[in-house]
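Structural prep section.
Before we set up the soaks we want a predicted structure of the protein with S-adenosylmethionine in place, mainly to decide which crystallisation condition to try first. Input record follows.
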Amino acid sequence: MSAVDTERREALEAAGAGAGAGHGEAGEAGSRAADESSAVVKRRYVRRMFSEIAPTYDLLNRLLSFNIDGRWRRRAIDVLGWERHPRGMFLDACAGTLDMSVELSRRAGFAGTIVAADFAEAMLRAGRTKVRGGAVRPVVADALQLPLGDGSVDGAMVAFGVRNFADIDAGLRELARVLKPGARLVVLDCSSPPSRLVRGVYQVYFRQLLPLVGRVVSGHRTAYRYLPESVAHFPPAPALKARLERAGLARVTYDTLTLGVTAVHWGERPGVDGAAA
Ligand SMILES: C[S@@+](CC[C@H](N)C(=O)[O-])C[C@H]1O[C@@H](n2cnc3c(N)ncnc32)[C@H](O)[C@@H]1O
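Run finished without errors. Recording the tokens verbatim:
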């Protein structure tokens, strides 16, 4: 098998790993071991791939989303509920080139701090020129093992990151763990448009044009092939809502954006104002 084939296979394997809804009662040792090894493959692939595409990541984001990605991020910040704790501490998990952190830090009245965590240091470095002042604190860290105590943040957000987790449920539980009671988690990610017609047009763009443009601009052979595959394996919006509830969040709700190509979900850690504990 050629090096190109091996890389492509690795990207496709990575895209499918970590999305499963976990084992049922069976939980056989064999399938658990297989899950663990595909999780290792996915984590390694995702970290390396984002490190490699960091220099062109922002440009391709703007280009491939027709510059709509800023609007999606603003919508996600709108539902974070930071106004209840303007001096609080917030987590931007999978912070990448810091767009979410910078957007929050620039909101009028925000006087808190943002821990911007990502395991690909090159992504954080690529975004550092956008940061002004001391509100944003980049940290190289895995979202599945956050260097934060239980109940330590006033809100958490993750944009286009959950899809890349080696174990989605473990990642959601970890994010829920660090929230203070009543604090909100916001998840912004790609989704599958509910309309069959829109989905059809979108698939042509997403599976044919996007990988081509992505490859030419980034020079990366597999990253923009991994992207549509990872979305195909990601739970649709109602299923993601159920997964967030299973991770321990209450009052989970979501909005679909731009004909359903992305969705923003939010929910809160129970324990305040009668939310089920
Ligand atoms: C598609 S980018 C999104 C970046 C940024 N949030 C944005 O909105 O542009 C996904 C980021 O998640 C990071 N990532 C994926 N899995 C991670 C994990 N388990 N821990 C920390 N970072 C992770 C990648 O390194 C990458 O920077």
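Observations: The mean pLDDT is 90.
Flagged for discussion at group meeting.
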